[in-house]
Amino acid sequence: MSGSTTTSGRSGGSRRPTLTGRLARFGFADITRSAGLLADPDLALLLDPGARSVDGPEAGAADPAGVVDDELLAAFGQAADPDLALLQVVRLAGALRPDVEARGALADLARGTLRPGPARDRLLAVLGASVALGDDVVRRPALLEVVADPAPGTGVAAGDVRVELLRAVGADPDAAVPVADESGPERVDALRRAYRERILRIAATDLTVTDPLTRMPAVGAALADLAAAALEGALAVARAELDDHGAGVRLAVVGMGKCGARELNYVSDVDVIYVVEPAEGFDEGYATTVGARLATSLARVCSGTSGEPALWQVDAALRPEGKQGPLVRTLASHVAYYERWAKTWEFQALLKARTVTGDRELGRAYEEAIAPFVWSAAGRENFVEDSQAMRRRVEAHVPAAEADRQLKLGKGGLRDVEFTVQLLQLVHGRSDDSIRSRSTLTALAELAAAGYVGREHAARLGVCYRFLRSLEHRIQLFRLRRTHLLPTADDELRRLARSLGMRTEGAAGLTERWRATRREVRGLHEEIFYRPLLPVVAQLSPDEVSLAPEAAKARFAAIGYRDPAGAMRHVTALIEGVSRRAAIQRQLLPVMLGWFAEGADPDAGLLAFRTLSETLGTTHWYLQLLRDSGSAAQRLAHLLANSRYMADALGRSPESVRWLAGDADLVPRGIERLAAETDAILTRADEVEPATVSLRAVRRRELARTGAAELLGVVDPVDAARSISDAADVVLAGALRVAEFVARDELGYDAPDPSSAPARLLVVAMGRLGGREMGYGSDADVMFVHDPAPGAAGDAAQAYALAAATRLRQLLSAVGPEPALPVDADLRPEGRNGPLVRSLASYTEYYERWSSVWEAQALLRARPVAGDVAGLGEAFTRVVDERRYPAGGLDLAHVREVRRIKARVEAERLPRGVEASRHLKLGRGGVSDVEWTVQLLQLQHAHEVPALRTTSTVDALDAAVDVGLVDPDDAATLGEAWHLASRLRSALVLWSGRTTGTTVDVLPHDRFALNGLARVLDLPGVDTGAELEEHYLRTARRARTVMERVFYGED
CATH code at 1029? Predict the structure, then answer.
């Protein structure tokens, strides 16, 4: 029959599509079977009362298309599983055949329900999505009245549902203690039938909404209210089993978990806790004994064997002591347990506690008694860590075979969302009662409104949670069985997809969305649930969290703030008002105030934070980053409380706070990336001044990045110095391009064309820049070299080179919106008395005829960095190599001269009034001692030891050890002193924010400053300023001893 065709009665004899084609078009999958079902005589009789009602060979001879037209087939096609919906209708038709033949009321009801309209939509939606509910309708066709009734299953008052189920067991809903009119299986079955009728009504509403995710919370609430009503009915039946109906016991049934939160599944264990008290005239022993009997009977009514399907298991395992503890307890017994023995997870579970059945007054007393335990639980030792560990244990217990299908317990599942929300509630809800909702979605919205979760994160988590719960509902609804596993069969996935409105996407689309949802939930869970702020907030007292003024000022004084009143003014300015910004600050500050106090100057740190917050507070990302990042807030507090330099740097470039979220953005960019950035700036530039400002900004940002990285331990001091030097290199190179452009323009050459210039230029790095050992306050020591272009006059080349060099120094040294880089050319031949720029030939002649040994020593740091590095730079390097690496090394006279100059520098250049032992550069055992020692070895031996031909002090010292010129222990002593002194010089800049002045190279006497330096350096075993002072002086003395022996030849 499925292959037959019929012709319509219209003229022309046009052919109708085959039945199989029509079924396929309407979404049927098992077409052969469904085509056969359409020929079922019972179906024909139900749909067409005029059809023959006799059995026999001709009973099904009528064309099914005459009974089931395309309109009805299309209606079946809207079901989650059209084949299943058709099968269930055929079964229903068979069950109704006697009534159909008798022309009874049920037959009319069924026929009317299958006519176009909302009732048919509800019926076919249920039959196509739930085998279990379809079986109910087939077994009890009177349930069609429930489906035909347009009253929704959600949004119904809980009291109305309670009345419905109490009346089902013959109990008086208005009685103070409802009792069923009789005990026994009849009332148990009546309760279960009433329950299934209400489930059918809820499912019919749920399955016919346009957007299941929007309706999901109402479905969960309706199911929880139904469970509460069923417990009430079961308790009424349980009381009927007792002669005195348990009149002497007050029993409250407290819903836990999803029941307590009004977000129950279709099939789930209902978690409860029982609380009893004796009625007047009865004792506690009676109450606990009879209460236990009532609780046991209540559970049996819900889940024991009977003529109707069980509802669900009543699980009291969340009670004190779990399954090992008594089934019921008095209120005082509960309180005593929670005071003394309860574990962390129990308080998290109590977050959902809600009286659902029984003595409401007693239930309210229980809720009031446990609330203080719940909202102070986060203050318990290791509360957050224990909660996080519990989540990991739950994940670990998921069987490997189920891990990728587990909706509830697995990674990216429902528990990730629920644990995240509950932890935030318990930590922050101590001082904020606006986030104490039991419902996951409501609590999530409250957390977002109060600023504890980003609004975007909350919205994404909310959508994911609704999808997971809706998927869970659909899976359980099919057979009304408790399961949390996503099926694997394509037909089951297809049915689920269609039931969720994903008809086009199908099984593959549903699977992909499930995976994407898991990834998103897991990512958000890990980002929020493991915030470092949470365990710190949890350990603060309620007064500390609330930032109450008097308590806060007392805390400031106790943890090291010098001006508690001033600190409180800053805090008040940040948290006052009802804005979201103020709300997030109220979360951050209780923790960050402690982090500031761990720094050297908490008052300065707080002030800098206020300034930065007032600058950035209106941006969408700043406070969100501090709240949600795993490291940004603590790193920011560390920088601001330990470094005025970084406070100023972040104030100049507030967007740099973004770097603190991870290590990647703190790692120095490297010279290639910096060069590419400066090249892009100059390529786009049209004007000199903006281009120069942009170049200087590149350096300023890189110094800030490096400073933050060094303070936070992302880079070591040597790499930090190289990063600072790289920034100077690229800015010099960029500035030279600008300066040459200006010089060409001013001197009448073709400004855009570098080849029109009369000379090639070179900038040679000297000193600490040449050695790539610059500090945050270092000048750029350089020399300028030029070489006339072919055919160019010497005076024209000199004039051009001088103009470019002069302009370069002006560009980088002038006062402006970005920090200057002073360019010092005093190490050139003849010093300040000599010309600023010389030709290569002039340098060659000077070094051959007039140079002194100190100039050869200075040339040990010479390194071409800008201009014609490949050509002129190589030529210049060949010239100076002959001077700095003299063949045969230094003769004795030159060695004596170097030593004499060193002694003179010590005697004359040390600032007046500064102790030699405390000057980090020129003092005894300081940077200069080590560098002169290494440089003397280079002058003496680099001609025969290629590894000594380096501008780096550290590398040269290592090379000297490798070839036996320095004892390894001596080298270690010298290296330790050089590193420590160099770090102290940088630390002084980072701590004080000053890059110039007579004190930037002097170890201070001031205890406060010394303590600050100790915090900045964070050396092992050095915790205080006094310890740092002692450590440096001792290290310098040892280095001086080695230096005198190696450099001066003294024993």
Answer: 1.20.120.330
For residues 656 and 702, state if they share a domain.
Answer: no
The Cα–Cα gap between 149 and 146 comes to 5
CB within 8 Å of 277: residues ≥ 6 apart: 249, 250, 287, 330, 331, 359, 362
Q: Clarify whether residues 159 and 144 are in a common domain.
A: no
Q: What is the pLDDT of residue 13?
A: 46
Is residue 415 within 8 Å of 493, Cβ to Cβ?
no
252 phi and psi angles, rounded to 5 deg: -115, 130
DSSP 3-state of 251: strand
Q: 1038-1049 burial, b if ≥16 CB within 10 A, otherwise e?
A: bbbebbbebbee
**Residue burial 960-997, b: 16+ Cβ < 10 Å; e: rest:** bbeeebbeeebbebbbebbbbbbbbbbbbbbbbbebee
Q: Residues in the chain, how many?
A: 1051
- Which residues, in sequence order, are bridge partners of residue 357? 253
Q: Point out the domain boundary residue: 110, 129, 148.
A: 148
Nearest to 92 by CA among 132, 41, 137, 128: 137
HSE of 352 in the Cβ direction (CA atoms, 13 Å)?
28
Indicate whether 63 pLDDT > 80: no
Residue 27 domain flag: yes
- The set of residues, in sequence order, having a beta carbon less than 8 Å from that of 42 and lying 6+ positions away, is 90, 93, 94, 96, 97, 100
Alpha-carbon distances, residue 517 vs 410, 460, 493 (angstroms)? 12, 9, 16
The mean of the pLDDT values for the chain is 92
Indicate whether 303 and 159 sit together in one domain: yes
Token duo for residue 693: 């400002």
Whether 717 and 634 share a structural domain: no
Q: Are residues 985 and 1008 part of one domain?
A: yes
Rounded to whole angstroms, how far apart are CA atoms 492 and 941?
82
- 363 in a structural domain: no
**Nearest one of 775, 782, 840 to 806, comparing CA atoms:** 782
Q: Is the pLDDT of residue 58 over 70?
A: no
For the segment 318-332, the average pLDDT, to the nearest whole number, is: 96
Query: Residue 416: enclosing H or E segment and its boundaries?
Result: helix 414-428
Instruction: Report the domain count for the chain.
Output: 6
Among residues 480, 508, 531, the one where a domain terminates is 531
Quote the CA–CA distance of 10 and 676 in Å, as a whole number: 78
**Could you tell me which residues come within 8 angstroms of residue 1003 by beta carbon, excluding any fewer than 6 positions away?**
918, 919, 920, 984, 1010, 1029, 1032
Give me Rg for the CA atoms of the chain.
42
667 burial type by CB count under 10 A (0-12 exposed, 13-18 middle, 19+ buried)? middle
Number of H helices, E strands in the chain: 46, 10
Range of the domain at 592: 540-661
Q: How far apart are CA 80 and CA 477, in angstroms?
A: 12
Neighbours of 392 (CB within 10 A): 9
pLDDT of residue 1: 34
Q: Pick the closest to residue 656 from 694, 697, 714, 607 (CA basis).
A: 697
pTM given for the model:
0.80
For 979, the token pair is 């590193």
